Amino acid sequence: MPGRKLLLVTVDPALAVLLPQQLAQGTDFTAEVAPPEEGRARLTEMGGRIDATLLDAAVPQGPSAWGPMLREAGGGRPVLLLGQATDEDRPEVLPPGISGRVSRPIRLPDLVARLHALLATFEASPEAAIPLGDYAFHPAAKLMLTPAGRRIRLTEKEAAILLYLHRTGGRAVTRAELLGEVWGYSSAVTTHTLETHIYRLRRKIEPEPQAAKLLLTEEGGYRLGA
Prior knowledge:
The protein is an alpha/beta fold. It has helices at residues 13-24, 36-46, 63-73, 108-123, 156-167, 175-183, 191-205, and strands spanning 4-9, 29-34, 52-56, 79-82, 100-102, 130-132, 135-138, 143-145, 151-153, 173-174, 215-218, 221-224.
């Protein structure tokens, strides 16, 4: 099942093999690997389809040299540093371009929790733009932009539906799960409420709502198209 995508920038052969394997087993993240000199080009090539970058602190010239470049190439998306923190290099004092740090040896639950926190902060920021199909989705502004610059305004719930489906990395989300995450477990909210919002949302963002390509119906739920 597709997951949220990371780019791991490292010169450590063991880390390049082991960390992607660990992430692929039981987390909602997958990781591609690039050496530092290819990281910027890879992020630019992916055009926003990478959710965050993991930067090995052992890269040549150090994270201060690579952090700003990777942050810019990733459209402001988080850059998480993987490396030991010392008294002189405290976790709260981060190199330029770095969003946060996880110390090595890496504990997978700590890494995943830190990534989720950084991504939630980024998605709530005004500059966050998430590629969805042909659109740029701005969750904080509740706005979809077409390549031609046309603005599609979303309601709070419509934006929340799209953001949650994006966060699941393309997997199908059941109606019950989506109701719980977007509306909470209120007895006043029914499946009909969700279906009405999906219907209205498709009329806004799908050129042919009856043949949806972005907001897809799966058996028992919904997911985003590739």
